[in-house]
Amino acid sequence: MTPADDGSLVALSDLRTAAYCPRKYYYRDREDDREPPPEVGDRRSLAVRYSDLLAADDADLAAEPVAVDPPAYRRTLEATRNRLEESGRWEAIRDPAARDVYVAGKDCHGIVHKVLEEPLVPSIVSVGEPPEQGVWHAQSVYAVAAAKALAWDRQQRIETACVEYPRYGVIRRITLSIRRKAEYRRTLSTVRGMEGVPERTTNRSKCEHCEYAGDCGVRTRTVRSLLGLG
Hints:
Distance between the termini: 59 Å
């Protein structure tokens, strides 16, 4: 089915940013150069090298952009492999049918990092740390958006999506539940309806490492101040 061609399609990356913090999206949307830092590509490339990483010794793993020590990383990735082998999805994740696929749906468009077949499932790759359980809210919105765009593009129903955290050896599957779809629709509405600077987030921990904190006017607290030393 042909997507909208009136400029109304929202980028998947914009939905992810707006789901994390609408105010961050507001500032990022006004930048001319929005290329990710070079280290992002190196970290994301781990997701296409799982077999090599499993076979690597400690010295080689230590030279990779993994986020935990080599023995712990290997244990986690081995557990991930075993779990996915039981469900018959390890080979699809390890060697997907397609990578870095551009899709355009009814409402959004962008790159899906991996496309798994039979059943059709999108997988997105995060260079950050996974939560203790499930996936972060912003990545849930991103994954649902990717699934909806891919489903529209292929004219197939999609019920699940994957989120990979290759620096930690963790891969999580989510279902496209009613709640997740509602979160996606709210974020889409926020992006499309944004006319001015949104209110600041009440979760100031998000501001500590945000590159727009200065523009936003948020004063982040230092470790000294948090300890009452400054």
